């Protein structure tokens, strides 16, 4: 087991990602944030909270998207995924969408997320924010626009992102 | 997580966690059905046949909508106008359909146990859409799902199942489902329409007094009088039945509480249920129908992937 980001580094990284978002989206008038279920929403929640602190008085739209029914491995002999809540109570039509997930690995989740998202409308543009980018492991041509940390990891290794409210502490670790 | 069964033949075979998994999945499908595009591509590689050897409006449309909204291809079969009338056996009919690469069977049959029999001879998941007077599992699931939606939980709730218990597959499936989820059940109706030993066999209360049962319960599920299944008359007339066991406004107003009214449809208006009750705010009959699609989507989603395990 190896620590990729400790609690302090994780906080700094999230702050930096938020500033990068502000740099590109200024007042978020035409931008919406969408966290991907089940694990991306913890990062999404944190980014949403930080942005509200950094931009007091600004209305920021933030939703949660579950991609279970859009996966490409249903019926492929793997265990069935139990769906989580989808909650997008705003229109994404002509909006700039920022998809938020914790770990970008093969890119298949993001492919599913793009399909799922398009059923809610036609956004003006879509960007991807990932806390951890496991580079050289993509199976689809998908790249992040905002990255917390880029890492190299073996297929046998797993990246685990721990969150205070769920796991008792903030940390990103690499498990063998 | 996955279901402990490979077919949905009856609630009797399910564990409590199976039912909870179906509900949890149905919650998300219910959200899908509120979207502008009420459809997901999950079962786009799956073909489903709806084999209806017996008439149906709601269940058939509900299953077909559920299948289409999961992205599946569907084919519909009804016994009338098919080779069944030329004497083809059930297994032959189904095997011929399956040889055209069908992945899931949804079946309604007038013979109790028909889907159970079929499940021993074919290698695809079967969903029972009602077999004779045995079970109608998806109806019980959508009924319990609708109660859970209104009351938050089934645990400790009191449900009265009223009317023609003897001929009702909805009653039997409901009893299994409600008991597994921790609800208390009373069946109420004329003694001729309640099977003997029901209380001992299924752990339900039996009552012959509709007013007492309604006063006791939180939810009343009023069943249809199934004249088509009664070979010899079991009560003297529909008018007498309605007077003794019909649920009407006057009866509900005489209770000191407001209960939820359910009915699996089709309603014999003025017999088991009066219009001013069926169409009132207490009635969740149309919620039941709406929830039926989401619950059937959940059952199909959780079972269609079981095909590999059966081959």
TrEMBL record, chain A:
It is an enzyme of class 2 (transferase). Keywords: Glycosyltransferase, Transcription, Transcription regulation, Transferase. It catalyses: UMP + diphosphate = 5-phospho-alpha-D-ribose 1-diphosphate + uracil. Signal peptide: none annotated. A motif (PRPP-binding) lies at residues 97-109. Residues 2-153 form the Phosphoribosyltransferase domain. SUPFAM superfamilies: PRTase-like. InterPro entries: PRTase-like (IPR029057), PRTase_dom (IPR000836), PyrR (IPR023050), PyrR_bifunctional (IPR050137). One of its GO terms (biological process) is regulation of DNA-templated transcription. Pfam families: Pribosyltran. One of its GO terms (molecular function) is uracil phosphoribosyltransferase activity. Its EC number is 2.4.2.9. It comes from the Bacteria. Belongs to the purine/pyrimidine phosphoribosyltransferase family. PyrR subfamily. Regulates the transcription of the pyrimidine nucleotide (pyr) operon in response to exogenous pyrimidines. Also displays a weak uracil phosphoribosyltransferase activity which is not physiologically significant. This is Bifunctional protein PyrR. The gene is pyrR.
UniProtKB/TrEMBL annotation, chain B:
Pathway: Pyrimidine metabolism; UMP biosynthesis via de novo pathway; (S)-dihydroorotate from bicarbonate: step 2/3. GO terms for biological process: 'de novo' pyrimidine nucleobase biosynthetic process; 'de novo' UMP biosynthetic process; amino acid metabolic process. It catalyses: carbamoyl phosphate + L-aspartate = N-carbamoyl-L-aspartate + phosphate + H(+). Residues 6-149 form the Aspartate/ornithine carbamoyltransferase carbamoyl-P binding domain. Transmembrane segments: none annotated. Pfam families: OTCace (PF00185), OTCace_N (PF02729). GO terms for molecular function: amino acid binding; aspartate carbamoyltransferase activity. Keywords: Pyrimidine biosynthesis, Transferase. Carbamoyl phosphate binds at residues 58-59, 108, 136, 139, 265-266. The keyword Transferase applies. One of its GO terms (cellular component) is cytosol. L-aspartate binds at residues 86, 169, 224. Its EC number is 2.1.3.2. Residues 155-303 form the Aspartate/ornithine carbamoyltransferase Asp/Orn-binding domain. The keyword Lyase does not apply. InterPro entries: Asp/Orn_carbamoyltranf_P-bd, Asp/Orn_carbamoylTrfase, Asp/Orn_carbamoylTrfase_sf, Asp_carbamoyltransf, Asp_carbamoyltransf_Asp/Orn-bd. Catalyzes the condensation of carbamoyl phosphate and aspartate to form carbamoyl aspartate and inorganic phosphate, the committed step in the de novo pyrimidine nucleotide biosynthesis pathway. Heterododecamer (2C3:3R2) of six catalytic PyrB chains organized as two trimers (C3), and six regulatory PyrI chains organized as three dimers (R2). NCBIfam families: asp_carb_tr, PRK00856.1. Belongs to the aspartate/ornithine carbamoyltransferase superfamily. ATCase family. This is Aspartate carbamoyltransferase. It comes from Chitinophaga fulva.
């Amino acid at each position: 087991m190896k620590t990729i980001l400790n609690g302090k580094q994780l906080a700094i990284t999230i702050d930096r990602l938020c500033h990068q978002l502000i740099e590109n989206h200024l007042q978020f008038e035409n931008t919406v944030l969408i966290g991907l279920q089940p694990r991306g929403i913890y990062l999404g929640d944190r980014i949403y909270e930080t942005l509200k602190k950094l931009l007091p008085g600004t209305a920021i739209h933030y939703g949660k998207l579950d991609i279970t029914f859009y996966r490409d491995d249903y019926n492929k002999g793997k265990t069935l995924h139990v769906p989580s809540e989808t909650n997008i109570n705003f229109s994404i039509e002509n909006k700039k969408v920022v998809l938020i997930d914790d770990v970008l690995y093969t890119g298949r989740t993001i492919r599913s997320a793009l399909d799922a998202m398009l059923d809610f409308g036609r956004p003006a543009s879509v960007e991807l924010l990932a806390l951890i980018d496991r580079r050289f492991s993509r199976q689809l041509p998908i790249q992040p626009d905002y990255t917390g940390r880029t890492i190299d990891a073996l297929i046998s290794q797993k990246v685990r992102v721990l969150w205070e409210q769920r796991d008792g502490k903030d940390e990103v670790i690499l498990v063998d | 997580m996955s279901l402990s069964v490979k077919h949905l033949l009856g609630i009797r075979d399910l564990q409590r966690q199976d039912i909870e998994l179906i509900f949890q999945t149905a919650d998300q499908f219910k959200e899908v059905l509120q979207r502008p595009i009420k459809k997901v591509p999950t079962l786009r590689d799956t073909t489903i046949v709806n084999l209806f050897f017996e008439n149906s409006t709601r269940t058939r449309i509900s299953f077909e909508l559920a299948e289409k909204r999961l992205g599946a291809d569907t084919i519909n079969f009804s016994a009338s106008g098919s080779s069944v009338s030329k004497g083809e056996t059930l297994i032959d009919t189904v095997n011929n359909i399956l040889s055209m690469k069908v992945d899931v069977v949804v079946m309604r049959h007038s013979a109790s146990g028909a889907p159970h029999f079929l499940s021993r001879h074919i290698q695809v998941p079967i969903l029972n859409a009602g077999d004779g007077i045995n079970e109608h599992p998806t109806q019980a699931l959508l009924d319990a799902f609708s109660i859970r939606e209104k009351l938050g939980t089934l645990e400790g709730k009191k449900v009265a199942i009223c009317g023609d218990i003897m001929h009702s597959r909805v009653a039997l499936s409901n009893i299994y489902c409600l008991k597994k989820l921790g609800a208390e059940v009373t069946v109420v109706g004329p003694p001729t329409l309640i099977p003997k030993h029901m209380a001992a066999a299924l752990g339900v209360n039996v009552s012959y007094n509709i007013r007492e049962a309604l006063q006791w319960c939180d939810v009343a599920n009023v069943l249809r009088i199934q004249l088509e299944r009664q070979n010899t008359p079991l009560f003297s007339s529909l008018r007498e039945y309605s007077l003794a066991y019909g649920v009407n406004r006057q009866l509900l107003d005489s209770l000191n509480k407001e209960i939820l009214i359910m009915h699996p449809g089709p309603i014999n208006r003025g017999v088991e249920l009066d219009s001013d009750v069926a169409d009132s705010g207490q009635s969740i009959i149309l919620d039941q129908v709406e929830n039926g699609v989401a619950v059937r989507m959940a059952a199909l989603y959780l079972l269609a992937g079981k095909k590999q395990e059966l081959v």
